[in-house]
Amino acid sequence: MATSLPLLVFPQAKTIAPPKGNGFPSSQPHVPGHGKQVVRLGAQLTALQQEFDRYKASVSGSVTGFEPETVLVIEIAGSVNEFRQAIEAIGLEWLGEWDIDDIPPDEDFFESNSKGERTSKAVKGRMFLSLGNEAGMRELLSLWEQWKNNQTLPTGKTKWRDVFNQTVQIRRWGIEEALRETGMLDRWRDLLDPINPGQLIHCQIELFYRKSGERRAQGERNVTALLEAAGGRTLGSFIDMPEIAFHAVKAELPAERIRQLLSDLDSDAHDTDIQLFKFHGVMYFRPTGQSLAVTEDGDGVDTEISEGEVDLPPIAAILDGAPNLQHQALKGRLLFDDPDNLSAQYQQGERKHGTAMASLVVHGEMVDGQSDPLQRLVYVLPIMQPDPHSMSRSEHVPDEVFFEDRIARAVRRMFEGEGAVPAQAPGVCVINLSIGDPARPFIHTPSPWARLLDWLSWKYRVLFCVSAGNYLHAIDIGLSRSDYLALTDQKRVGHALNCIQAQLSGRRILSPAESINAISVGATHSDSVENYHQGQRTDLLPDAPLFSPAARLGHGFRRSIKPEILFPGGRQLYRTPVLDSQSVYQLDGGLGAPGQRVAWDSSQAGDLSQTVHTRGTSNATALATRSAARIYEVLDVLRTEHGEDIPQGLISVLIKALLVHGAKQDDDACKAITAALKTPENSRQFKEVMARYLGYGSVEIERVLACTEQRGTVLGCGEIRENEIHEYRLPLPPGLSSSQVWRRMVVTLAWFSPVNPDHRNFREAKLELSPVGGWGDLPLKLARQDADHNQVLRGTVQHEVVEGSKQIAAYQDGDSILLHVACKKDATASLDDAIPYGLAVTLEVTEGIQIPIYEQLRTRLQPQVAVGAVGGTR
Known about the structure:
A hairpin with a 4-residue loop joins β8 (233-241) and β9. The longest helix is centred in the N-terminal third of the chain and has 26 residues, at 34-59. This protein is an alpha+beta fold. The radius of gyration is 28 Å and the shape is globular.
């Protein structure tokens, strides 16, 4: 067994000036000429004007104080700089923008190759949203007439020339976006009960966020009046969060209005007279069902676990359902805070998910009743409660309550207190969120919940670990039972991977896993169970170190890597079809093995030791949070026993870096996915394909908690401002010079970014780590493995794995690798804040090779000036 040695720390980073140069201009797709655009857009603008006139007539006098306005959707190919100024110059109100990368190419709009030839690639562009009244519409049409007639546009409005040149489509935001794209129409069709005419339907109404408080107040009055006119009502108050541009209300509507809407849309007119569904202020109608699926009941296993006596203040928190505080595995180990007394609503045996998550955070996976509990209390605040209207009383947030509100209150209570109550857990560095919204898979833009986590991460410098979500639906194998079971294990894996790939659109990660500042966690198909009875169950991914077949898969916002990391989530089996001709395999949700053994709330009074086996990304996320707590203890030892200066305000972001630092895509998993899914069409982007299934890889947490004689990990952290570069020097171990041994270098940079919900990029700060001269030109002769070099720059974690086996160049003792951390603005005109970041660098050779990497790094880091300081400005 390798000797465990403490992590190392970089000396103070040197701040250097950025290189001069403006970079390369972005390429623009081919667009049609003036004449073709006159024809294309002329018809669209005529239709837009006619539709607006009909809308004005239909709402005339319908609500007091109602001003007919419309939300314009302008899709352009390529990009137009400073488009917001162009919008506001003609009296329209800017509402936001986002990138689109799936505009179908045609003879007018297409991408060209290096030779200028047309390709079949989808066109990339942007979508802009703006709101205008009648005067704004007149100004837009006036500019159109001038451009159409080749007249010079007025000063300050010339940007509209580019807009008209590049516009693919211009239309009103309407029922298609507000209802159909969110899946509400299909959901309502499923919900309607034909034998219950008095049925009441709940939904969430999200409004476009207006900058003016009076405009928002008027929008609330309008929605309330339109709801009442439709026979509905609001459920509770409107929520208004300016930090994340979120304005919404929960509502109740009579089923007869939903039936009328569906009938109207199915008619030839494809329109409705119900003004609520046409109101310009509404961005989306969404489901309110934010429930958490609970595993089936089953036989448990009693296990003896000693009660805890820890009293150190918490650095890890759990927001979930209420746990059973008296369970032997949890008693004395949790700091429980329940300001809304939600635990009183639970009955015996219903504290399931909260108990299981607390068990995994505190103990990890229990193996033969043994565990290694955390040294500190874990702070737990329940945000869910049993659903009295559900047969299973599954845990949820009630329809009249916003998840966003409960999360914001809970986090504020931790760090600031609430009312007269002081801060309840101000030392928390990581928050576990093993829940998600099954009604809101990620599509295009971050959800309000994800935006909230991003803002809270930035404000309080706290790391959220969020589950990617579970896919609970069946998998259709497409083969008879006997034909499928006759395949070799390797072919069964390949076949299952193809079936999973066919489900990708339905397997998108669940909100809030798209949060850019959070670490999103996926599950591997693994656990510690050695023997179990398989029965009438099938392992669709036998003997393969792959992701769980029940896991949801990436990408994240702007095709970033999500989930970033994978932790064990238990082996998930599927029920074998009864008939040989059947090919559909249903997920098995029983509580027996395989899976991860966790504490469970028994339905039998007095039973305080029950354990069961569960599976899923919730489990994996709890294990990630547990690992984050263990990383904290390592960093705390560096500060208290080794005298390293690691500021408290940078602990969370350094934990974030180290969580990802232990990730590596498994070689066998990569081979299985490549064999099953790689084609000539996707071969050039296959690293992105791989990242969708594996993220940065599975985490071996023990590798980041300590070093060995042949593996040294060096840490840095700091705060960096726009256009600064922080330079770190990694000493080159002289024992590697001119040698020919396998070596690996892993570099991870993580940061928290402020966010701008108005901007298509959303992320205000873009950090990038790069070696001076590039990986290939370093003396170690390293080549990038795993993730795509562009994709690693799209989130708030950059994780690079580089390896080499060719002969290393000769170098002198004292030579170093220079690593630069650069900061640039992204979704902002100027970046005013200093950005906190954490850095981890590991250099290793094969264990047993007689090159003392660790000692040679340690001795060459020590003599430098300012030993113990880390990373840039404080």
